[in-house]
Design brief:
MetI-like fold, 2 domains, 11 helices, 77% helix
Length: 302
């Protein structure tokens, strides 16, 4: 003997929806808390070790700024101004407390404000990475969709081969080829430099197109492969078979059932790609002469 549960009332449906929302919110908060719990000790250890290595190296930031011909009096004056004549732990605490107040200090090389330098460099890198993500999603979506709709055909095999090739091409190699062909050969784009969007959208797009294209190849490959796999899997589901039996057209089946259910895994990968694009911009910014965050980080490490 089997029993059936009574249908859910509107109030109970709302309660279930609220419970699910609260559960999802709790999971998000737990992930954020875990990320913060990992970041804080890593940040403290990394910055402390960096300060310790600088102290053990014997290098004088004051001498770096003033040059090798600086007098001991001038070096001592700059070190006193920056607090470098204080004990090591005092130096670290002064820097760390300044970070908590949003004061990152000044560059030891040129005396410029660190916050300003980071803001300028990050603006360049985010512009290139965002445009690369847009290009990668647009082209990858088209290639993945066409490959899924033409699965097991020559078109599918050609697209699969293309994305396999571009996925293993380093961004700096792609960048060099793009400069040689599109910038130097045909003169379609500037080969180097950056123009802020405030000075004109056209020049801004012209200067970030080639760097963005160089970074977008990996995104194109990932989006195309993931989307094709998801769409092909969705076509095998029972709800698609049921839609065919009901007489729905191919276009309605694709947009109403296949695409809607196949986009989820693809969208999930995009959240991991954007930080990778910003990180991969270090070499690309050198090729295209961009003063972005990647180049700023590289100069800081040197």
């Amino acid at each position: 003997m089997t029993t059936t549960e009574p249908p859910l009332t509107p109030a109970r449906r709302r309660g279930v929806a609220v419970a699910r929302t609260q559960h999802a919110s709790a999971r998000v908060l737990a992930v954020l808390a875990r990320s913060v719990a990992i970041f804080v000790p890593v940040f403290l250890v990394a910055t402390f070790v960096t300060f310790a290595l600088r102290s053990l190296s014997g290098l004088s930031p004051a001498r770096i700024q003033l040059g090798e011909d600086a007098t001991p009096e001038a070096i001592a004056r700059i070190e006193a101004q920056w607090g470098l004549d204080q004990p090591f732990l005092t130096q670290y605490w002064n820097w760390f407390s300044g970070v908590l107040r949003g004061e990152l200090g000044s560059s030891w090389v040129n005396g410029a404000d660190i916050s300003t330098l980071i803001g300028l460099g990050l603006g360049v890198s985010l512009s290139v990475a965002t445009f690369a993500l847009v290009i990668g999603v647009a082209v990858g979506f088209v290639l993945g969709t066409v490959a899924a709709l033409r699965r097991t055909t020559a078109v599918d095999r050609a697209i699969t081969g293309f994305v396999t090739v571009v996925s293993v091409m380093p961004a700096f190699v792609v960048g060099i080829v793009l400069v040689a062909v599109l910038a130097v050969g045909f003169g379609l784009f500037p080969s180097a430099g950056y123009v802020p969007a405030e000075q004109g959208v056209g020049p801004w797009l012209a200067h970030i197109t080639l760097p963005a294209l160089a970074l977008s190849f990996d995104v194109i490959a990932d989006v195309a492969r993931q989307l094709r796999s998801s769409l092909v899997g969705a076509y095998r589901e029972n709800y698609v078979t049921g839609a065919v039996v009901r007489g729905l057209g191919p276009r309605r089946i694709f947009f109403g059932h296949v695409l809607r259910n196949g986009l989820g895994p693809t969208l999930a990968t995009l959240g991991q790609k954007f930080p990778a694009l910003v990180g991969a911009s270090v070499v690309t910014e050198w090729i295209f002469g961009l003063q972005g965050f990647g180049r700023f980080a590289n100069d800081s490490a040197q």
